[in-house]
Amino acid sequence: MKEVTITIDNTKHSVAKGLTVLDAARQVGIDIPSLCFMKLHDINIENKPGGCRICVVEVKGRKNLVPSCCTEVEDGMEIQTHSMRVINARRTVMELILSDHPAECLTCAKAGDCELQVVADRLGIRELHYEGEKTHLPKGNSPAISRDPNKCILCRRCEMMCNEVQTVGCLGAVNRGFHSVVTPAFGNDLINSVCTFCGQCVAVCPTGALTEIDESAKVVRALNDPTKTVIVQTAPAVRAALGEEFGNEPGTLVTGKMVAALRRLGFHYVFDTDFAADLTIMEEGTELLRRLKGYLAGDTSVKLPILTSCCPAWVNFFEHQFPDMRDIPSTARSPQQMFGAIAKTYFADLLKIERKDLVVVSIMPCLAKKYERARPEFQQNGNPDVDVVLSTRELARLIKLCNIDLNQLPDEEFDQPLGESTGAGVLFGTTGGVIEAAVRTAYEIHTGKELPKLEFEELRGMEGLREATIDFDGLDLKIGIAHGLGNARRMLEDIRSGKSHFHAIEIMSCPGGCIGGGGQPYHHGHVEILKKRQLALYKEDGSKKIRKSHENPYIVSLYKNFLGAPMSNLAHLLLHTHYFDKKY
Amino acid sequence: MENTIIKFAMGTCGIASGTQDILNLFDKELSRLNYPASLVKTGCMGHCYAEPTISITLPGKDAVYFGNVNEERARDIIDHFLLKGDHTEGIIPPEGDFSRKQLKIALRNCGEIDPENIQEYIDREGYKALMKCLTKKPEKVIAEIKDSGLRGRGGGGFSTGLKWEITRKSKSDVKYVVCNADEGDPGAFMDRSVLEGDPHSVIEAMIICGYSIGSNNGLVYIRAEYPLAISRLKTALNQAREQGFLGENILHSGFSFDIEIRYGAGAFVCGEETALIHSMEGMRGEPTFKPPYPSVSGYMGKPTCVNNVETLANIATIIRNGAEWFSSIGTATSKGTKVFALAGKIKRTGLIEVPMGTTLREIIFEIGGGIKGIKKFKAAQTGGPSGGCLSEQYLDTPIDYEHLLEAGSMMGSGGMIVLDEDDCMVSMAKFYLEFSIDESCGKCAPCRLGNKRLHEMLVKITDGKGTMADLQKIKDLSVVIKDTSLCGLGQTSPNPVLSTLNQFHDEYVAHIEERNCSAHQCKELIHYVILPDKCTGCTVCFRNCPVEAIYGDKGEVHSILDHQCIKCGICLSKCKFNAIIIN
Amino acid sequence: MTTLSESTRNFLVELCRKYRNDEHELINVLHEAQDALGYLPVEVQHLVAGELKIPDARVYGVVTFYSFFTMVPKGKFDISICMGTACYVKGNELILDEFKRRLNVKVGGTTPDGIFTLSTLRCVGACSLAPVVSIGNKVFGNVTPLQVKKIIDEYIEKAEELH
Ligand SMILES: Cc1cc2nc3c(=O)[nH]c(=O)nc-3n(C[C@H](O)[C@H](O)[C@H](O)COP(=O)(O)O)c2cc1C
Ligand code: SF4
Ligand code: SF4
Ligand code: SF4
Ligand code: SF4
Ligand code: SF4
Ligand code: SF4
Ligand code: SF4
Ligand code: SF4
Ligand code: FES
Ligand code: FES
Ligand code: FES
Fold first, then answer.
1. What pLDDT does residue C2 have?
2. Do A130 and B453 touch (CB under 8 A)?
3. Structural contact between residues B471 and B508, judged by C-beta atoms closer than 8 angstroms
4. Catalytic residue among A115, A212, A245, A372
5. B73 and B199 fall within a common domain
6. Residue B572: which domain range?
7. How far is the CA of A103 from the centre of ligand 2 (A)?
8. SS3 B139
C-alpha cells in the first residue's frame, strides 16, 4: 500500500493513501467528532452523505472547511482539526442542529446512548444562540418500532441500512430543505409499508428518532398480577450482549447472571429459547432430510434448497418481496414461537393452569419478534402464544429499574423442563449457527454415525455470503449462508434464476445474525463488537456438555410424552406455519 | 428581386407580449397587398423593453429594428415604411447606446435566424467549426479552447479547456457531454434565449466537446419551465440528425455522437452539477461532495463534462476565429464576452452581451438607459441568490470574475437586477434567502437550518423587532454557513445578506433602531395616511379599499384605520389628489 | 389505496415500458404521467415503482423533492405568480397577497369550488413585463393589485362557460 505524508495539527504523519482525513486522524490518535458518518467494517458498508458537517477541518489551500469523512488524504496536505475557525464552525453547526431538535433528553428513549447528546456535550454546547421554527411532525408507531421524526437529524444512516444493506427500501428522504425528513413511502407508518421490522435502522440511528416500542411496563404489570404465572424465555444472543449494558466488555457472557436477574425480577420460571432452538432443529432438520430424500429419489415436486425460517424479519421480507417463492422456506416456526406454543399447551398442562393465566415473556435481541408475536396465526382465540417481547436493551432497563446490580449476582441455572439446551441451540444467535446446529443433527440422523468433530469452521465467520460443502458420508451437502437481507436477496434471485446449487441455506436478516439484532445494545457502528459476541457464543457452545439438539433429554421426552415425532400432526399444528402473499 | 425580410422576435417574452398577433397581421396585410416579403420567426433580439420587436431588411439594405410594435404601429410600418419607404416611429437606432457597447458572440445568431431552420444556421457558417475539428486531433481542439481563455459561464468560471482536458484524460469506455440548461436563477434568461434563438450553436459545441473528450453521448438537462426552448431544441436535434451532424459516423469522419434531452422538474439546486447528474439518473437532486468531480466520475459513474449553455454557445466561434481572436477580447483573467439579462428598475430591460471588462456604469446607464422614472440608482444585484449587490461605489468596476468577487458579488450566470430608492435592501436580502430556503435540498445541516435561521432573523428586522445584536449574529452565522455547506448553494446563499449588510449597513440600523424602512417596503414599518388638507372626500379610495380600512363621508376628509389596513397600496395608486402618503 | 382504472393502469404500464422500465428514467415517466393525469396520486406512484422495480419510497422521495410534481389535483385554472427577482422588485408580493386574500387560499392551495389553484413559480422569462401572472398559456404583464379582482372574475366567467 502506498503512503502519503500529511501534516495534521502541526505534526507530520505517514498514512496510507486512499484513507479519509477522518480515518487517518483517528489512526494517529486524533478523534475528530462525527455524526452522520458510519462505517461498518466487516460488512464493508459506509454511510457518508457529508451532511452533518460536524467533522469539518481546515485544509491549507482549500477555500472552505472540508468534511474530513469525505475527504481523502493527499500528499503534503496540511490539516488543522481544532483551530478557532474549526471549533467555531462545529459548534455553530451543532447549535443549528439543536435549534430544530426537541430538548427532551430527560424523557428520551435514547438518553445516555444518544450520539447527538454525546457530540453536543463534547463540543461544549451549553446555550443555544439560534431559535426559530421547529419541525413538528406526528410520531409513528408500529408493533415494533417507534419513530419520532422531530428527533431526526437527517444523518441518513437508517436509509442506508434499509436500502443498501437490507435492500428493503422502506425508508427514504422526502421533501427538501427545512422540510426534509426520512420516512416510509407516502408518509405511512411502518406497519403500512414494506418494513420487515429487522430493526437495523434502529440499531444505527444516532438519536431517539428510531427506537423500539418499549413494552416493559406490560411485564411489570404481569409480574405484579397474582392471578398470572409469568414465565420468560431468553434468546441465545441476549446473554452475549446484555453485559455491555452493565459496563462489561463486549463478548462477556452473562448467562448465569441473567438467569439470576430474571428470577429476582419475579419470573416464576426462567426458561431458555435455546431449548426451542433445539426443537427447531428437530423439525427443520427432519424437514430437510425428507426433502433431500425425495429430491435424491427424483421426486420433482420436492423443492430444494430449503431455507431456514427462524428469523421473522426474513419471513416478512420474502412475504413482501418474493411471495412467489414462499414454498421454499422451511415451514418450521421460529424458536420464539415454538417456545410459546409449547409453553401454552404442554407446559400449561404440566402446571395445570389455563392458557390465559400463563404469561409468556420473551427476551430477544430482535425487534421483528415483537411484530411476529402479534401475527394472528400465532394466537388462539385472541390469546397469543407469546405475550410480550422485550429487547435486550429493554431487559437491561428493567433490571436497572428494579435496582438489581447484574454484576454482583451469582450465576444461576435455567429452570426445567424448558430451560435445558444444547450447544447447538446456543449457536442460533450467530450467523451460520442455525445451519451448523442443523448439520450436527441431520448428519447423525442421516448417516447413523457419530460426528468426529462438532465445530464446522467452514460455516463460521462474518462474510456476508458464505458457502460450504459438507460430506454426509458420501453425499456432498451444499450449504449456503447469508446474513443481511441484501445478501438474502441475492440468494433468492439466484434461486429464482436457477443459478443456485445449494441444498440448504441459512438466512438471518441482521448483519452478524441475532448478535447484531435491532434490539441489542447499540454498537454505534463498531461492528467489531459483533465478532466478540459471536466468539462468546462459540465459547458457550464449547462449554456445554450436550452439544447436539437431538441429544437434549428434555427434547427427547417432549417428543416421547407429547409431540410424538418430528413433523407429526401435533408438531405440525404447534410448530409449523404457513406464509402469505403480502406483496405490497 | 430579393424579398424583403421581416423578422419577428419570438422568444418566450416576445410571444408573451403578443408578437404572434403582429406576425399574423403582417402576414394578412402583406398577402392582401401582394407585398413580396419573407416573414421569419426568430428568437430574442434582446430588446425586452420594446417588445414586440421586429426587424425589417429591405433588399440590399441593412436591417432596421422597430420596437413596441403594436397593431397601430404595425399598420404604420406597412403603410409608410414598407409601401412608401418613409421614416416611421419606433425605430431602434443601430448606433444607439443599447447596441453600440455590445459585442455579440454567444448571441451572434439570436434574433437573426429562424431557430427552426437549420439552413439559416448553416448559412451563417454553422457547423463549419465542427467540420474543422473533425479533421484535427482532439488534443489540438482542446488546446485551442484552453488557449482562448474561455471560462465557464454557469457561475463557477472554471477554465473550459482544462475541464475538457481532464475529462479526456479520465480513462473510461463511456463518457458523457452534458449541457446544463437548468438556468434556475430568478431573473436570468440568458440560456433560455440562446436555446430559443440559436439551438444549433449549442448542439454544434456539444458535438465538438464529444469529439474532443472522446465521448459519443450528449445530454441536455433542461428545466421543464422552458417549453419553447425544449420544442426548438427538439426540432434542431432532428434537423441536425437529418443533415448528418448527429448520429453514426458524423460527416463520414468515423466519429459518432448523439444527444438526448432530460428534464428538470423544478429544483434550482439541480443546476449544481452533481445534483444535476443525480437528477438525470432519476434520483432526488441532492449534491454530493466533490471531489470526485464529474469529469472523473459523473453520470452513471462515468467521466462527464458538464458545461453551461452560454459557455457552449462560444465554442464554435472560437474554433472558427481562433483562440487568439477570442483572447484578445476581455480582461487579463476573463476573456470574451458575457451575456446579461438586464431587469428591474432600468429603462431598457433586455438581453445584452458585452465584452468582459465593461463597467457597471456602461451597462446600466448607457446600454440600459439608466433608471426608469425619476428615482435614483441604488444598487445592481448580480449573481442572483448566490451573488450580491453592487452599490454606487462600484459603478466603475470593470465586470469580470475577479472584480465581482472582490466587490462581494459574483458573476453568477448573468442575471442583473437594477434597484432604485424604492427597494429595501433588507427585504432584498430576505427575498434571496427565502429563495435559498425554498431551494435548499436539505442534505446538509448548515444550509438546511442555517439559512432558515438567518431568514428568521431578517424577518425579525423587517418586522421591526430586530436588535443590534442580531446583526452580529447574522454576520457570524453567514460566515459559518458559507464555510461549512456541502455545495455551492449553501456556500454562497448568505452572500446577498453579507453584501447588503456591508454596503447598506445604515439601512439595517434604521430598520432596527428607528423602525424605519426608507423604501417603504416593509409592511410592518409603514402606515398609509390621508393628508386632511389634500383630501377632497371624493370617496375613490374608500370604494377601492379591499378591506374597508377607509372611512369618511362623501365630501368629507377620509381616514385610514391603520390596524385594519393590509398595506396593499391600492388607495394610494387611486387617489387623484395625492392625498395619501406612506409614513 | 383506491384502485386505478384499467385504462390508467394500462397507460402507465405502457409508459414505463416506453422508457424500457429503466429506473433512471423515473423523472421522465413522472413528467408524462402528470401531464396525462394532472397529478401523481399515491396509486400512480406505487404502480410506477412496481414497473420500474424500485421501492415506493424512492418514487415518493423524488415526487416530494421536485416542486413540479404534485400529489393533489389542481384547480381548473392554475394562477401562477412569478416570484422571480424582476417581478419581486416590481411588487409581486402585493399581487400575491391580493390573490391569497381574494381566493382565500394559501400558495399551493385550491379553492373549494375547484376552479383556482394558486401557485408561484420562478421567472417565466418575461421579466420585462414584471410583475407577471400566468394562467395556463396566458401571461398577464404589469399586473397591479387592483387588476387582481378583474382577472379572477374573468376566469370565473370562463369556468361558468365551460360548464
Ligand atoms: C446551486 C447551484 C446552481 C447552479 N445552477 C446552474 C445553472 O442553472 N446553470 C448552469 O449552467 N450552471 C449552474 N451552476 C453551476 C454548475 O454547477 C456548473 O458549474 C456549470 O454548469 C459548469 O459549466 P461551465 O463550466 O460551463 O460554467 C449552479 C451551481 C450551483 C452551486
Ligand atoms: S435524541 Fe438525543 S439529543 Fe435528542 S432528545 Fe433524545 S437523547 Fe436528547
Ligand atoms: S444533566 Fe442537567 S438537566 Fe439533565 S438531569 Fe442533570 S442537572 Fe438535570
Ligand atoms: S426495520 Fe428494517 S426494514 Fe424496517 S425500516 Fe428499519 S431497516 Fe428498513
Ligand atoms: S431517523 Fe435516525 S438514522 Fe435515520 S436519518 Fe434520522 S437520525 Fe439518522
Ligand atoms: S437476525 Fe435475529 S435479531 Fe435479526 S431480525 Fe432475524 S431473528 Fe431478529
Ligand atoms: S448546501 Fe444546501 S443545497 Fe447544497 S447540499 Fe447542502 S443543503 Fe443541499
Ligand atoms: S381618494 Fe384621495 S382625495 Fe379621494 S377620498 Fe381618498 S384620500 Fe381623499
Ligand atoms: S393600503 Fe390598501 S388596505 Fe390600506 S387603506 Fe389603502 S387600500 Fe385599504
Ligand atoms: S460526519 Fe462528516 S459530514 Fe457528517
Ligand atoms: S426580448 Fe426576448 S427575452 Fe427579452
Ligand atoms: S422575474 Fe418574473 S418573469 Fe422573470
1. 65
2. yes
3. yes
4. A372
5. no
6. 527-582
7. 7
8. helix
From CA A329, how far away is CA A437, in angstroms rounded?
A: 17
Indicate whether B384 and B446 sit together in one domain.
no
pLDDT at B270 over 60: yes
- Which residues are within 8 A (CB) of B281 and not within 5 positions of it... i.e. 6 or more apart? B299, B300, C24
Q: B393 and B431, same structural domain?
A: no
What's the topology of domain A145-212?
A: Alpha-Beta Plaits (3.30.70)
Tell me what pLDDT residue B457 has: 97
Chain A's closest residue to B451, CA to CA, is A178
Instruction: Quick: pLDDT tens for B191-242.
Output: 999 999 999 999 999 999 999 999 999 999 999 888 899 999 999 999 999 9
Using pLDDT thresholds of 50, 70 and 90, give the confidence band for residue B156.
confident
Backbone angles phi, psi at A56, to 5 degrees: -65, 150
Write the residue with the smallest CA distance to atom 3 of ligand 5. Answer: A205
Return the residue in A137, A166, A178, A186 with the most chain C beta carbons within 10 A, the one to mutate for interface testing.
Answer: A186
Task: Write down the ipTM of this complex.
Answer: 0.94
Looking at residue B474, what is its pLDDT?
97
Nearest CA in chain C to B224: C68
CATH number for position B16? 3.40.30.10
| Whether the Cβ atoms of residue B410 and residue B382 lie closer than 8 Å to each other | yes
pLDDT in tens, C18-47: 999 999 999 999 999 999 999 999 999 999
**pLDDT surpasses 80 at B479:** yes
Please report how many Cα atoms fall inside a 13 Å half-sphere around the Cα of residue C138, on the Cβ side.
Answer: 9
The CATH code that applies to domain A3-122 is 3.10.20.740
CATH class of A286-332+422-518+534-575: alpha beta
Q: At what angle do helices A255-265 and A392-401 cross, to 10 degrees?
A: 50
Domain count, chain B: 5
- Please, which pLDDT band fits residue C130 given cuts at 50, 70 and 90? confident
Question: On the CB side of C85, how many CA atoms lie within 13 Å of its CA?
Answer: 37
> pLDDT value at position B51?
87
C-alpha cell, A373: 408475536
Q: Hey, are the CB atoms on A169 and C58 less than 8 Å from each other?
A: yes
